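Dear Dr. H.,

I hope your travels went smoothly. While you were away I took the liberty of generating a structure for the chain from your last submission, since the lab meeting agenda had it listed for discussion. I wanted you to have the full record in hand beforehand rather than looking at slides cold. The sequence, exactly as received, is reproduced here:
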Amino acid sequence: MSTQTKARERKASTSAPIGDLLGPVGPEGISRPKHKRTVTGFGAAEIKNVEASIPEPQREAWKKHSAQGFKTKDEFEAEAVRHIETTLARSLFNCDEGAAYSGTALAFRDRLIVEWNKTQQRQTLANQKRVYYLSLEFLMGRALDNAMLNVGLKDVATGLLSIT
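The corresponding predicted structure, in token form, is as follows:
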């Protein structure tokens, strides 16, 4: 059986050039949805309603077991070792400098996320306007050092890791 493929014809675009677009884009009578300025997609009123609907046993379990973040050298060691063993699947016998760095970075990431979540909830409940700024003028190698400084615990990690 002979299989011959036809050359595909290229069809002209049927969409209007961007310069010709006037007014709202889309079908007539349909407007764009309003943007919600929240990470969760809930506004302040919706968050309060959802919070009120959470049963007390679940609320107590969440408060009891929610991540607190480390504050001392011992707590930092425990978090770093936990990440090295569980997240990176390493043991004491195959933990190299890369794994130690990654475990440290993950421990600080967890700490930053706890604070970030609190900030997001506080800002959403306050229903304030936000200003977003994106800058690409940073050094990625300093990200861990900056994270340690931002949570105020660089001295905790420095003693354990001998970071200079």
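Two observations you may find useful: The two ends are 72 Å apart (CA to CA). The longest helix spans residues 97-126.

With kind regards,
E. W.
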